[in-house]
Each structure stands twice: as C-alpha cells, then as structure tokens.
Amino acid sequence: MSREQSYVRVDNTLGNKLFDGANIIVLTIIALVTVLPFIYILAVSFTSPEEAAKGGFILFPKSFSLSAYQYIFSTDTLMRSLLVSIYVTTLGTAINLLLTCLMAYPLAKQTLRGRQPILMAVLFTMLFSGGLIPTYFVVSGMGLTNTLWSLMIPNAISAFNLIVLKNFFQQIPDGLEDSARIDGCTDVGVLFRIVIPLSMPAIATFGMFYAVSHWNQFFSAIIYINDSDKWPVQVLLREIVILAQSRIGDTGFDETAIQPQTIRMAVIVFATIPILLVYPFLQKHFAKGVMLGSVKG
Amino acid sequence: MNAQIRTTGSSSSSPSKSTLGKERVSRRSEWLRELIKDKWMYAMLLPGVLFFIIFKYVPMYGVIIAFQDYQPFQGVLGSSWAGLKHFERFFSEPQFWQLFRNTLLLAIYNIVFFFPLPIVLALMLNEVRIERFKRFVQTMIYIPHFVSWVVVVGVFYIILTTEGGIINEMLFALTGHKIAFLLEPSWFRTIIISQSIWKEVGWGTIIFLAALSGVDVQLYEAARIDGANRLRQLWHITLPAIRSTIVILLILRLGTFLDSGFEHIFLMLTPTNRDVGEVFDTYVYVKGLTQAQYSYSAAVGLFKSFIGLILVLGANWMAKKFGQEGVY
C-alpha cells in the first residue's frame, strides 16, 4: 500500500514511463502465451470438422459446432472414465482429509507421549522411499490392484500436508479445547466440534489440493489398473492424445466422418474444466497455503 | 486394537536408565495412566500410523529384494540371496552411463534455463504499479500449475505434430518444411524444458514475490533521493533483498538434482527418443513392471533413492551453512 503511495510522488520522467510501458507489454505477452494454448484448444473443440480440417490458427470458431462433444457423449468410454475420475476424486479427497485431520490433531499436542518419534518417522518418509517396485508389491499383496482403492489408499496421507496441518492445529488456543473438555467432550469430539470447524479455511485449501492431485493422477492407474473400464479420464486422455490410439468409441474412429483432432481437443477440455472451475477458490487460498508450507515443521 | 495402541505408546517413550526398580514401576504406571487418559488421541493416531507403516515402511523393508533373486511366488522370505549381483550388473551396463548422462543433462538444463525465469518474472511483476494488472497476470500464469502433465503433454502434442499441428503449419508457411519435434531426439530436451517452463514458471514466482513484499519502502525513497533510477533501485535494493531466497532455492534444487520429473518424462518417451530421454526412474519402470526384472529394478531404484537421500541431506547441510534454517 505505502509502496503505491510513494510511487505517486515519483517524477514521471520519460525513462520511468518507458520502463513501465515495456514491462507491461512483456508481461501481457507472457500472460497471453500462457493461456493461448487453452483458448486455442477450447475454440477448436467447438469448431465444425470441416473448418478444423483446414487448419489455421483458430481463436474463435467461425462455424460453431458441437459434433465433437456429441460424439463424446455418444460413447461409453469417456463418460465412464469421467465418472471414475469424479468418484475417485470425491471419495479419495474425503479419505485424505479424514485421515490427515485424525493424525494431525494428536501430533499437534506437544505433551502427547510418542509424538516425537512418530513425527520423525513421518519426516523420514519425505527423504527416503522404498521405491516403485516394493510399493507395487505391497499394493498388489493387499489385493488392491485392479480396484479403484489402489488410486485412493496408497496415497491417503501426504506427509507434507500432514506436517503443515499439524502446525496449523498447534496455533489454535488451548483454552477453547479445554472448555469443551470440561463440558464432557472426548478428544475426538473436540477435534470434530472445535478444531476442525475453526480450521475450515485451511482444511478447504488442503481439500482442493488433494482433489486436484486426484483428478490429475494417471500413473497409479497405469501401474495398478489393467481393466480399461476403470480408467480415470487422464489415462484415457493419454491413450487418445499421446499414444494416438483412435480408440475413443467402443468400435474405434470412423476417420472420414469425424475429425479426430477436434475430439482430442474436446477430451482435453473435459480433463481440464474441473480444475478451472475450482481455480478461483484455489487462487484465493493457495498463496497462504504455500506460505504455511514454508514455515518449518 | 488395544494392543496396537499400547505398543505405539510404550515403544516410543524411551526408557531412561533408572536403576531403582521402584521408580521404574511408578514410571510404568504413570505411562499407563497417560495412555488411558489419552486413549482417544492414540486411537486417532492409529489409522495414520498404520498407513505410514504399510505404505511407506513395509516398502522400505521390501527393498531387500534388491539383494535377492526375488520370485513373487516365493516371497521376500523364500527368495534366495544374491548379494550385490544386481548392483554390479547395473554399474557395468553401458546403459548406466546413458541414464546418468540423460539425468544429468536434464538437471543442468533445468538449472540453467528454468531456474532464473521465476526470479526475472517476479521482479517484473514487482515493478508493476497497477495492482489490478498485476493480479490479472498472476491469475493467468498460475493456471498451468494445476493442470495435469497428461494435459500439458497432450496440448504440446496437438500443437507440435507434423500432421496439422499449428506450429508446423506456420513453419511450413514460412520456410516450406516441417520439423518432427516429437520424434526428433535432438528436440527432446528442448521440449521437456519448454513444457516445464510453461507449466511451472508462473507458480515459481510466488515464493520470490513473498520475499519481495517484505522489502522496506523507505529504502526505495532514500535511493530516489540519491538519484537512483528504476534499474539502479532494482539492482541495489530489490535483488539483494531476495538474494538469500535465491541461494536457498538453488541449494534445495541441487538436493533434488536426480528427480527429473518422472511423470512428465514418462509421458514424453517414445521409442525414437529413448536414447536421450530415459532416466533412472523410467528405467526402473521399464525393467521392473514391463519386463518383470524385479530385483534388478529394485536395485536401480534403491541406488537412486540412496543418492537422492545423500543429495538432500547435503543440500540441507549447505543451507544451514548459509545461515538459513534447514528444511528438515
């Protein structure tokens, strides 16, 4: 604030104006380059196959068409993968939040016996891991492969989020909790009736970060899930766009009738839209979240 | 369940070397009292502790298959020991040096081309006087961070393909020929770094902007009175203010030197660019999960984790030497 005010008094020399002008132009270009690919893909996905086939740089469809989306909705595969992703994201995030809160709360109590060794053990997992192969054997040994649980359980708690949430819980004044205890609340009751409601903004932020990572994950599904019926949308997207296997419909493309390019773009739009929908909420909180994270555990 | 709680509680509190039996008894009963008093606390800890044991510590125990000839049907206990055989094989493999080179080059490219960009961008944003414009730019450049790697790579595929990709269309119109960016191994590293830049540079500015917001405004006023122009102020006030942040982030980046972004590279690998694109992590995946060489790939993974651990601890030690609070 005070910085802005102080600038008002700056003599508006030519040099200063040029500096500001150049700065704003370059930043505008950077911002545009960042979002242009998204706009291009969105525009082409709504373009008629004929226009898209001609190519060229489309930022606004001249001949508006929903054929790509109609095609997508007519196939089972994509709709099913969207449902899988929605299911994994909601249930997975609920599990994440429940387990992270349950574990963070006792760890926030400095007097609890055994707290320190558990914290050290958690920190150590951030430094060293058994690696891909042994983890794979644990997950398959528990019979989780080829079930959607394999996408939710093996990453149920993020050590980093746990530590940050623990720090957040520590800042809550003890007095509030004590008064609830005097009124006969158990520790579990205190967590759910006092601590969690008081930490809602932080928990909402963690929830959104967890949800974004669930929605975006593809690698767990690639290693743990063979059954293509259970693929989340990111895996399907990889098949369609990157491996270019024209297998979106149950039968495969009829390349003459449909422009595969517009369909690929429509799938990308589907895989991205949920992120863009929560983005305004995320943006409100993440700066704070990142700062919380930089505070030492 | 009860037993589990009890072991968690008692194993963790280190017994002191008290010689008096009587005192020990009273201490034990004191633990017991606290255990009962905090039983709900321990009950809440239980699911999380189980999670970390099963999904983090059991795999750490599982890395001993790197020293065995592991057969899935015989299990960890039934498989025969192989000593350091798999490590010896890995180090003598000509591919070891290829993986080493690929990983190293990507890491160096990252530090040279990616690392300075968030700093420059943050400095530029910091100079913007119109608050609304600044916020608009920030909103735009943070978006790609939240998009999946699959989408990022997918977008690049669509734009760069030789069959109707917009970049190649333009290139063809200008020069009359196309470049197979996605197949040409010589383009692999350039594209990987460009994708990282597009996705993460905006997000990377946050930490520098936070450091910049703490700079004392009076310094700028004093400098202006002394006749310093905007560039001079930038050089003598703004940049020194974030110098320690830059140093610490550079050190921490060195700590994760070997992590070249597994998911990202995994998605970008094709049969034509494996020679330049294969890194330790993707090699573990190929050998272990597609070719079922479990023990060998676990050995490669363990080698990488171990080097990674040393690098992180070393970086943390260095950060402390620089007078910063370490991360661990």
Order of helices and strands of chain A: HHHHHHHHHHHHHH
Summarize the biggest pleated sheet of chain A: none
How many DSSP-defined strands of chain A? 0
Kindly identify the CATH topology of the largest domain in chain A. MetI-like fold
Q: Report strand % of chain A.
A: under 5%
Helix/strand order of chain B, N-terminal first: HHHEHEHHHHHHHHHHHHHH
Main sheet attributes: strand count, strand direction, barrel closure of chain B: 2 strands, antiparallel
Largest interface between protein chains, with number of residues from each side: A-B, 105 and 100 residues
Q: Could you estimate the helical fraction of the residues of chain A in percent?
A: over 70%
The name of the CATH superfamily of the largest domain in chain B reads MetI-like
Tally of individual domains of chain A: 2
Provide an overview of this structure.
The complex is a heterodimer of chains A (297) and B (328). Chain A is an all-alpha fold and 297 residues long. Chain A folds into two domains: 2-66, no CATH class; 68-294, MetI-like (MetI-like fold), CATH 1.10.3720.10. Chain A contains 14 helices and no strands. Chain A has helices at 2-8, 14-45, 49-54, 67-74, 76-107, 115-127, 132-141, 159-170, 174-182, 187-198, 200-216, 219-224, 233-242, 260-294. Chain B has 328 residues and is mostly helical. Chain B folds into two domains: 2-74, no CATH class; 86-321, MetI-like fold. Chain B has 18 helices and two strands. In chain B, strands 1-2 form a two-stranded antiparallel ribbon. Chain B starts with a helix and ends in a 7-residue tail after the last helix. Chains A and B meet through helix 1, helix 2, helix 5, helix 6 and helix 7 of A and helix 1, helix 2, helix 3, helix 7 and helix 8 of B. Chain B: Residues 100-315 form the ABC transmembrane type-1 domain. Chain B: The chain crosses the membrane at residues 42-67, 104-125, 137-160, 201-222, 234-252, 294-315. Chain B: It comes from Paenibacillus algorifonticola. Chain B: Belongs to the binding-protein-dependent transport system permease family. Chain B: It is found in: Cell membrane; Membrane.
